[in-house]
Prior knowledge:
By secondary structure, the protein is mostly helical. 93% of the residues lie in helices and 0% in strands. The chain has two helices and no strands. The protein has helices at 2-37, 39-43. The chain is rod-shaped.
Amino acid sequence: MDTMSVTQRDFQPLDVTTLPRIRLVPMKATLSMNDKQLPMENVS
């Protein structure tokens, strides 16, 4: 039981750190594309 607790605890922070990192990359790329494709919408 102790081993499972340690594994789950180690996996949680890893997932939490990987999720935002992987999401930040595509989000930034999409934002950049949207900014160049819809500059008027952004100004508005």
